[in-house]
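[Meeting: bench + compute handoff]

Bench side (C.D.) handed over the final construct sequence. Compute side (W.E.) agreed to return the predicted structure before the next meeting so the bench team could plan truncations. Sequence as handed over:
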Amino acid sequence: MLLTEGTPTTSGNYRWIANYNGDVNNTAVGGTCNDDGESVTVILPPPPTPTPTPTPTPSATPTPTVTPSPTPTPTPTVTPSSTPTPTPTPGAQSQNISTRVLVQTGESQAIGGFIITPGSPKQVIIRGLGQSLGQQGITGFLADPVLELHGPDGSVIKTNDNWRDTQEIKIQNTGLAPTNDLESAIVITLDPGNYTAVLSGRDGTTGVSIVEVYDLDATGTSRLGNLSTRAGVETGENVVIAGFIIGVQSDNSDIVVRGLGPSLKSRGVDNVLADPALELRDSDGTLLKSDDNWQDDPDQAALITDSQLAPEKAKEAALEVSLPPGRYTAILSGNSGTGVGIVEIYNKR
């Protein structure tokens, strides 16, 4: 290849011829082809391989955050402090009863009781919740609930600390397994009678918790006829919040709700709630009925007396109402001060 001028663009052997045109002081001169020293070998580097522009990988579609449905607020029960519940007639049936309480120690631990009315044995699940309440914005929850189930004679039937310890598969099969491993649950089939669930904190710890009972056999001839909870009634978020679900049946359910305090002194409780007050609300939070002293409304007082569920003390609260299927909440607070109280829900029919 002959290079006359410019820059080589390919590799190879190049020759050139030197020519000088001369000037006023010098004579022009020119070389000939293939003169010595007039050739060069050029090796050019290969052109760089272009770096491909990466195709952007689309970011994954974000997984939507599922807001857990709030746990219903039903009512647990201490052994009922009244005349036995009247014999039920067919009608709406309680499917779930639970209470949200501030679990403390001694007299102020949570003691939840429930009645299985006469009929067939009934399978239930009892749960003690704590840490999962944090997902509902509740602070100061009970870190590690412990459940004890007591029979009609007061003996311990079953206990549970962490729900996966002994009945994991059976609890999962109910579809009602707690969402936190430190929460408690018991699945059991019970004969008709009065039962008590005692909810405490492991190693004497305290905090807000829910104790609840679910009916796993709604087609049986027995039903959950009453639920009540004895606990320390505080102020603000730490009032006692009891709830219940009435299943879809043909008729309304006649419900009596009671808030007890002063009468507990005769049972050896010292720090009683001096003046209980009750509110009954529906699933939208709408106030349906309230009561301070149960004898204030003569018509209500007559209904409650006829039901044989009149409180012992005039300062205690009670109300009776006919309710369609749905979710309801009873809130027990104190008109003045705090103390140990009982909230009870009786399903008469």
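W.E. noted at the follow-up: Confidence is low (pLDDT under 50) at residues 48-94. C.D. will use this when planning the next construct.
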